[in-house]
Design brief:
Length: about 100
Amino acid sequence: MDQEHPTSAQPAVEPAEFYCDSVNFEVGAYGFSLALGKGTPPVEGASQPGMHVLARAHMSPQHAKVLAKLFVMNVKRYEEQFGEIDLPNGLYQSMGLPAEW
């Protein structure tokens, strides 16, 4: 294989792998962006924790909708195999989410 012209079977750079415990969403008319990172303690005077961004992913609205459905499907499969993931109701409330999905 030509080292100067990598193919899809030969990536030029290995993708980064990391643990993510924080996600920020940006939504626009033509796409979605996800900032993935690690949470940081709130800075002085802030009420919310911060985040150290490790990567950003950008996608079309169509891709975002499919990704959302795939996440739900895979979380349900996980819970069928390993049991329900228990989260406190206060967490849902703080994010403005319904407790059941």
